[in-house]
Design brief:
alpha+beta, Translation Initiation Factor IF3, 3 domains, binds zinc ion, BirA Bifunctional Protein, domain 2, Rossmann fold, globular
Length: 476
């Protein structure tokens, strides 16, 4: 099984974008459809999403939220109510103008996000402080008419969850905003083995209509950043626009304080670009639809298939295991399941059965391990843990090695030419400097990280006193 075995995947060092396209299509995560910028999520891709969804849904419910479902369409007049919000989303909204043959009296937009629908509903159901907090979440699809699209990263339609909450006080809403960005970060790091930088978006980059936005940012293999989840403090802006008032504990009418937060199928793109290699996908065990793939060797020999099926049944209680007993050659199967990123391959043939052992092969390191049957369950558990940790540590090292501190704008520019990755640099807080840096370098402010450092006392662009250290990067 030499390196040349993988003929079909472009090397990521030659062309990262083509590598990504090859992986998402050849590993059967997606197919293209006739609708520009839309993708068909195939069973393997969808089962990945289902795992992520189930992990996140558990966390959302454990933190006290209830799932609800809002309509797909938003009347134009409703969308117009919050001015900043409509201004932010107008360029990418899809409109319904006809029902059958008839032109509609009022256009309907296909939801790009559901703040306004929740706003209208909250007005109906919230009257007293006793109705608060309202902690809602919706699993849905949304549509944003993007000009350039890439599978998972940016598509016209995508799947996500959007949390929407109402609180009595600004402080409570703030705590909720922080709580949910931490939930996203924990999910990324523990389940998906993706290390993240947590921080606040600048005003330029915050959500349209929000008071402020928290974000988690991750770093892809090619050194580009990816916004991986956001949590917004909406203040009382939407509450004012929609008239969401309640009688407070003193008997006075007051506007609610709101939050919203979202996590999308985009994270699958992140997982691919953080862990993948030239053989294809590498999926962290906790997210993997199949953790162990059994490949019988010389399966035509008597007893091999029975043995392999028994093994599958035995292991099914403790790991997500599957078997490929098709008549394809073992070499084809090895290649296929490596490309699909399955964490462990289990080979078993007549000689192994004789010796009471199986062969395990790690996807992340390629290491081959002979294991006696009596130790198999323990060994599998240990190896899956090891792989999960190894993937996280590798990604963490990559993030750290590619986060560079710069002290001047000259250094910022020259660094960016040589390396991709995060640049940490001081900023005065002025929009003008942020705009100029983006215009001149192509790097955007990713976040003002919670963990601040004082690298210099002045803004690298204008030399006025610095307010924050910012992570900058070219981003997806
Ligand atoms: Zn400045």
């Amino acid at each position: 099984m030499g390196k040349n075995f993988v003929k079909d995947i472009t090397s990521m060092d030659d062309d990262f974008a083509q590598w990504y396209t090859d992986v998402v299509t050849k590993a059967e995560l997606i197919d293209y459809s006739s609708v520009r910028g839309s993708m068909i999520i195939r069973p393997y891709g969808y089962s990945l999403w289902e795992n992520i969804k189930s992990e996140l849904d558990d966390r959302i419910k454990k933190t006290g939220h209830e799932n609800v479902y809002m309509p797909l369409f938003i009347p134009e007049s409703l969308l117009q109510k919050e001015k900043d919000h409509i201004k932010g989303f107008a360029p990418e909204v899809a409109w319904i103008t006809h029902g059958g043959e008839e032109e509609l009296e009022e256009r309907l937009c296909v939801r790009p996000t559901s703040e306004v629908l929740f706003g209208e509903h909250f007005k109906h159901i919230i009257h007293s402080y006793r109705d608060l907090p309202k902690l809602y979440n919706q699993w849905a699809n949304v549509v944003r008419w993007e000009k350039t699209t890439r599978p998972f990263l940016r598509t016209l339609e995508f799947l996500w969850q959007e949390g929407h909450t109402c609180h009595e006080t600004e402080v409570e809403a703030h705590e909720e905003t922080i709580k949910m960005i931490n939930v996203y970060a924990e999910l990324c790091e523990n389940t998906l083995a993706i290390p993240v930088v947590k921080g606040k978006k600048t005003d330029k980059e915050k959500f349209a209509g929000a008071k402020y936005t928290y974000t988690i940012e991750s770093l892809m293999h090619d050194g580009k950043a990816l916004q991986s989840g956001t949590s917004h403090h909406l203040g009382d802006g939407f509450a004012n626009a929609f008239g969401i008032q309640f009688t407070n504990r003193e008997g006075n009418l007051q506007y609610v304080q709101q939050t919203s937060w979202g996590f999308t199928t985009r994270i699958i793109g992140a997982m691919i670009m953080v862990h993948g290699d030239n053989r294809g996908l590498v999926i962290p065990p906790k997210a993997a639809p199949t953790q162990v793939m059994i490949v019988p060797i010389a399966q035509h020999k008597e007893g091999v298939l029975d043995f392999a099926y028994d093994l599958k049944e035995e292991l099914a209680g403790s790991v997500r295991v599957d078997i490929d007993a098709s008549d394809k050659k073992p070499g084809w199967k090895f290649n296929e399941y490596e490309m699909k990123g399955i964490p462990l391959r289990l080979e078993v043939g007549p000689k192994d059965i004789e010796k009471n052992q199986v062969v395990l092969v790690r996807r992340d390191t390629g290491e081959k391990i002979y294991v006696k049957l009596e130790n198999l369950s323990t060994e599998l558990e240990k190896l899956l843990d090891d792989i999960q940790t190894n993937l996280f540590n590798k990604a963490k090292d990559h993030l750290q090695e590619n986060s560079r501190e710069v002290l001047s704008y000259e250094q910022f520019k020259s660094d960016l030419e040589v390396h991709a990755g995060f640049i940490k640099a001081m900023w005065c807080g002025e929009r003008a400097c942020e705009d100029k840096i983006k215009e001149e370098t192509g790097a955007t402010s990713r976040c003002i990280p919670f963990e601040q450092q004082q690298l210099t006392t002045t803004c690298i662009y204008c030399s006025k006193p610095a307010k924050h250290m910012v992570y900058w990067a070219k981003a997806y």
